[in-house]
C-alpha cells in the first residue's frame, strides 16, 4: 500500500469520529437556538426581599488557602445581600497557616465557624466537606438550631450578592439550585485563562440550559450550588453517614447525579446581567499550561474515568446521551490535535495542487464520500467556533471573541495533555491499588481595586443591618443635598446612630472597627511615621505586642495613600476604622494634633455611592 493510501485510510476513522462528535455538538447548538426566546421568570427585588431567608450554611473546604481565604471571607461577608447565613470553613490540623488565618477572621466575622478535620490533609475535597457537615450538625446540637440549606463554595470565589437569595427563592421548589460560574476577565495575552473563559461561557450559556431543558441530570459546579437539608439527610442515610463520596475527585459531578437519581428536582439559574455584573460566581482559573493540565486531568479522571467505573452505561438509561457527552472527551481530547494536523495537511495539499497544477496524491486517493465528510466536518467546526465566539463575546466583549479560534486550537492541545495525564494517573493508581489523591490547584484572589467595584452602597448596608428602614432611606436619598454624603445626611436627620453608620462602613470597606482604647501608642510606633505626614494624612501611629505597629487615621485611605505610608515601614500595614471625633480626642491627649480640615479623599467615598467619611488605623 502506498503512503498516499495509508494517509487516506487513516483519515477515514478520524473523519467519522469528528463528524459524529460535531453533529452531536451541532444538535445541542440547534436546541439552544430554538429555545432562545423561551422566557424565564426572574424574581423582582421586592420578592427577594420579602422571601423568608431560610437559614443557610456556606461550606468552604480549605487546604493551604491562607493566601486567599481572608480576602474571600471578608469580601463576601461584606457584599452578600442575605441576612441569615453562616460560613463553615473546613481546615486540616497540619495546615497551621490556614488554621491561623481563619481563626483570626472569627473576631471580625461573627458568623464564621471553623471545623478542624480529625486527620491530616490533604485527603479530598469531598472528605473535607463531609467533616464540615458533621461540624455543622454538632454546632446545631449545641445551639439548638437548624440550617435548612447548604451552599458549597471554594476559597477563590466571588459570591454574587444575590446568590443566596436566588438559591433560597428557587429552592422552595427545587432540592438543588446551581448558580452559574464564570471566570473573571483577564488580558487577551493570557491565553490559558482565556480558554477557560471561552469554555465556561459556552457551557453556562448553551450546554447546561439545553441539558436542563431536555431532562438531563445537572452536574453540580462545586461552587454556587445550593442543596436542601432534606436531600442531604437522605443521601446521608443511604451512604452510611457520608454525604459526599470521599473517593471521587469530582464530587460535585457525582453529587449532582445522585441527587437526580433520588428523583429530586434540580435547577440551573440562567445567566443574566444586572446593573453591575453577571449573576454568577466569579473566580480566576489557572493561567499556566502546567497548572491547567493539573486541574483538567482531575476533571477528566473524575467525570470520565471514575464516572464510567461507577455508573457504567446502563444504570440510568434516560441519561445515556449525557453520559456520552460527558465521556466522549476521553477520545475527543486525544484526537483533536490529530484532527487539527489533518486539517492543516488537507489545506496544504489543496494549496500545493492549486500552485503546482499537479493533483495531490493522497487527496486523489480519497473516495468521494470521504471528501464530502471532510468538507462537512470543516463546516460544522466553523459553526461551532462561531457559537463559542457568540457566547464568549456576549460576556467578555467582541474584541475578546475574536481570539476564540486561536484559543480553541491551543485548548485542544491542553485537553489532550490533560487526558494523557489522567489516563496515566488512573492506570497507575489502579495497578498499584492506591487511592487517587486531591490534586489541588493554587488559587489567586482579585486585587483590592476589583473588589472595591463590587462593594455595596452604604444605604443598602444600613438597611441590611436594620439601622434604617427602606422608606426612610428613599426619603433621605431624595432630600440629599448636592455634594453631601448619605451617611452624614442620615445622621443629620437622626435616622441612624453613629455606631450603626460605622458598622456599615466597616462592612463596606472590610476594615475592622477599633475605639480609642485600642490605639495604644508606643515610642517606637510613633517614630515610624513623621509628624508632618501624620498631620497631613490624619494618621496616628500605635503599637501592638510582639513588635507589631498600628496607625490610626480619619478615613479609609486610597491605594495611593497606603503606598505612601508603606515606605516608612518594612512591615505590612493594616487599617481599622476609628470615628473621627474619637481619633481627634486621642490625638489631643497624645499631643499629636491632626489637621481638622483634612477631609478624606477616597475614590470609594463619593456622594453618588452613598459613602460617609470613615476612620481607620493600620497595623503591621
Q: How would you explain this protein's 3D organization?
A:
- With 620 residues, the chain is α/β, with parallel strands linked by helices.
- Among the domains are: 38-288, Spore Coat Polysaccharide Biosynthesis Protein SpsA, Chain A (Alpha-Beta Complex), CATH 3.90.550; 455-619, no CATH class.
- It is built from 25 helices and twelve strands.
- The protein has a seven-stranded mixed beta sheet, sandwiched between helices. It has a three-stranded antiparallel beta sheet with strand order 10-11-12.
- Helix 10 crosses helix 16 (404-432).
- The N and C termini lie far apart (76 Å).
- Mean pLDDT is 82; it is low at 545-558 and 596-620.
Structural classification:
alpha/beta
Q: Could you give the order of strands across the largest sheet?
A: 3-2-1-4-7-5-8
CATH class of the domain at 38-288: Alpha Beta
Output mean pLDDT. 82
The gyration radius over C-alpha positions equals 28 Å
Largest sheet descriptor? 7 strands, mixed
Strand content: 5-15%
User: Got a strand count?
Assistant: 12
Amino acid at each position: 500500500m502506498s503512503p498516499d493510501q495509508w494517509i487516506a485510510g487513516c483519515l477515514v476513522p478520524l473523519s467519522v469520529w469528528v463528524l459524529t462528535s460535531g453533529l452531536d455538538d451541532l444538535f445541542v447548538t440547534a436546541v439552544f437556538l430554538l429555545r432562545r426566546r423561551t422566557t424565564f421568570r426572574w424574581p423582582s427585588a421586592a420578592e427577594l426581599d420579602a422571601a423568608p431567608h431560610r437559614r443557610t450554611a456556606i461550606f468552604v473546604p480549605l487546604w493551604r488557602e491562607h493566601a486567599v481565604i481572608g480576602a474571600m471571607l471578608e469580601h463576601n461577608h461584606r457584599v452578600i445581600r442575605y441576612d441569615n447565613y453562616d460560613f463553615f470553613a473546613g481546615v486540616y490540623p497540619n495546615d497551621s497557616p490556614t488554621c491561623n488565618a481563619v481563626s483570626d477572621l472569627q473576631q471580625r466575622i461573627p458568623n464564621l465557624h471553623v471545623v478542624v478535620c480529625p486527620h491530616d490533609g490533604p485527603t479530598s475535597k469531598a472528605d473535607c466537606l463531609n467533616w464540615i457537615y458533621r461540624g455543622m450538625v454538632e454546632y446545631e446540637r449545641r445551639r439548638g438550631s437548624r440550617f435548612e440549606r447548604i451552599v458549597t463554595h471554594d476559597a477563590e470565589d466571588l459570591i454574587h450578592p444575590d446568590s443566596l437569595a436566588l438559591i433560597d427563592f428557587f429552592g422552595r421548589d427545587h432540592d438543588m439550585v446551581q448558580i452559574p460560574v464564570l471566570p473573571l476577565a483577564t488580558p487577551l495575552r493570557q491565553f490559558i485563562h482565556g480558554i477557560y473563559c471561552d469554555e465556561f461561557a459556552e457551557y453556562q450559556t448553551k450546554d447546561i440550559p439545553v441539558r436542563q431543558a431536555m431532562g438531563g441530570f445537572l452536574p453540580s459546579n462545586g461552587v454556587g450550588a445550593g442543596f436542601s437539608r432534606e436531600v442531604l439527610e437522605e443521601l446521608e442515610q443511604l451512604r452510611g453517614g457520608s454525604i459526599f463520596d470521599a473517593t471521587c475527585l469530582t464530587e460535585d459531578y457525582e453529587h449532582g447525579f445522585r441527587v437526580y437519581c433520588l428523583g429530586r428536582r434540580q435547577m440551573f439559574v440562567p445567566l443574566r446581567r444586572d446593573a453591575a455584573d453577571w449573576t454568577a460566581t466569579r473566580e480566576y482559573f489557572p493561567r499556566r499550561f502546567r497548572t491547567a493540565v493539573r486541574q483538567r486531568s482531575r476533571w477528566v479522571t473524575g467525570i470520565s474515568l471514575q464516572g464510567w467505573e461507577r455508573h457504567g452505561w446502563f444504570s440510568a438509561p434516560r441519561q445515556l446521551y449525557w453520559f456520552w457527552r460527558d465521556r466522549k472527551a476521553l477520545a475527543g481530547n486525544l484526537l483533536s490535535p490529530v484532527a487539527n494536523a489533518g486539517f492543516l495537511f488537507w489545506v496544504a495539499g489543496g494549496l500545493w495542487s492549486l500552485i503546482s497544477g499537479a493533483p495531490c496524491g493522497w487527496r486523489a486517493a480519497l473516495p468521494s464520500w470521504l471528501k464530502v465528510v471532510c468538507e462537512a466536518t470543516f463546516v460544522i467546526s466553523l459553526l461551532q467556533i462561531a457559537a463559542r465566539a457568540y457566547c464568549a463575546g456576549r460576556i467578555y466583549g467582541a474584541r475578546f471573541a475574536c481570539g476564540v479560534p486561536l484559543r480553541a486550537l491551543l485548548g485542544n492541545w491542553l485537553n489532550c495533555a490533560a487526558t494523557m495525564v489522567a489516563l496515566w494517573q488512573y492506570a497507575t493508581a489502579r495497578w498499584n491499588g492506591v487511592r487517587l489523591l486531591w490534586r489541588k490547584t493554587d488559587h489567586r484572589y482579585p486585587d483590592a481595586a476589583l473588589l472595591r467595584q463590587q462593594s455595596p452602597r452604604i444605604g443598602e448596608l444600613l438597611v441590611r443591618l436594620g439601622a434604617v428602614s427602606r422608606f426612610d432611606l428613599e426619603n433621605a436619598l431624595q432630600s440629599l443635598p448636592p455634594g453631601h454624603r448619605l451617611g452624614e445626611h442620615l445622621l443629620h436627620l437622626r435616622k441612624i446612630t453613629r455606631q450603626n453608620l460605622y458598622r456599615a462602613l466597616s462592612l463596606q470597606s472590610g476594615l475592622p472597627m477599633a475605639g480609642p482604647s485600642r490605639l495604644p501608642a508606643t515610642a517606637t510606633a510613633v517614630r515610624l511615621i513623621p509628624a508632618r505626614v501624620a498631620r497631613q494624612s490624619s494618621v496616628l501611629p500605635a503599637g501592638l505586642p510582639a513588635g507589631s505597629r498600628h496607625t490610626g487615621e480619619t478615613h479609609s485611605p486610597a491605594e495611593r495613600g497606603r503606598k505612601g505610608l508603606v515606605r516608612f515601614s518594612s512591615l505590612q500595614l493594616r487599617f481599622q476604622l476609628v470615628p473621627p471625633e474619637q481619633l481627634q480626642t486621642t490625638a489631643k491627649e497624645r499631643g499629636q494634633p491632626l489637621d481638622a480640615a483634612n477631609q478624606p479623599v477616597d475614590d470609594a467615598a463619593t456622594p453618588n455611592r452613598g459613602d460617609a467619611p470613615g476612620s481607620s488605623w493600620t497595623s503591621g
